[in-house]
């Protein structure tokens, strides 16, 4: 059975790039355009990993990360933050909220897949 990943990003182009990369590596993917959509989809799908943008409308990625970690079914599920934000404060906030990895856009497919594989192995 394939491992399922939820990709959360308001950019359709980034989502499609992530979906292509992940599906090509054999993963199932659920897509959400923002944190609000992700919270709804979490109830419909069981996912083993989240990859989320930080800056999104309706609900940003840090808020989504905190809500994921508050959910009894997902509090131990790893989250990779994918963003253009390279600032130390944002990274610190994300790590304190429970992010397992922080990747800067544009992402490198091999680097992303390496992080995904490592987190699924834990």
Could you characterize what this model shows?
This protein has one domain: Rossmann fold (3-Layer(aba) Sandwich), CATH 3.40.50.2300. Helices cover 46% and strands 19% of the residues. The model has no long low-confidence stretch (mean pLDDT 93).
Question: Could you outline the blueprint of secondary structure elements for this entry?
Answer:
Elements: E1 4-8, H1 12-24, E2 28-32, H2 35-44, E3 49-52, H3 61-70, E4 79-83, H4 88-97, E5 101-104, H5 109-121
Parallel strand pairs: 1-2, 1-3, 3-4, 4-5
Helix pairs in contact: 2-3
What is this entry, summarized?
The protein is an alpha/beta fold. It has helices at residues 12-24, 35-44, 61-70, 88-97, 109-121; strands spanning 4-8, 28-32, 49-52, 79-83, 101-104.
Shape: globular
Strand portion, in percent?
15-25%
Q: Given the structure, what is the number of helices?
A: 5
Residue stretches low in confidence (pLDDT < 50, at least 5 long) are none
The biggest beta sheet is recorded as:
5 strands, parallel
How many β-strands, per DSSP?
5
CATH architecture, by name, is 3-Layer(aba) Sandwich
Q: Which topology does CATH recognise?
A: Rossmann fold
Number of domains: 1
Instruction: State the helical fraction.
Output: 40-55%
Q: Label the structural class.
A: alpha/beta
Task: Give the CATH H-level superfamily.
Answer: Response regulator
Lateral arrangement of strands in the main beta sheet: 2-1-3-4-5
Instruction: Give the rounded overall mean pLDDT.
Output: 93
Radius of gyration: 13 Å
């Amino acid at each position: 059975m394939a491992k399922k990943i939820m990709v959360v990003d308001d950019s359709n182009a980034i989502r499609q790039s992530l979906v292509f990369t992940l599906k090509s590596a054999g993963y199932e993917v659920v897509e959400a355009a923002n944190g609000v959509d992700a919270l709804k989809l979490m109830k419909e799908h069981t996912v083993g990993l989240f990859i989320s943008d930080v800056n999104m409308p309706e609900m940003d990625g840090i808020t989504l990360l905190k809500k994921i970690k508050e959910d009894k079914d997902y509090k131990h599920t790893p989250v990779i933050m994918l963003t253009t934000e390279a600032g130390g404060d944002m990274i610190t906030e994300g790590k304190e909220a429970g992010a397992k990895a922080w990747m800067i856009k544009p992402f490198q497919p091999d680097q992303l897949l390496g992080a995904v594989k490592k987190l699924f192995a834990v």
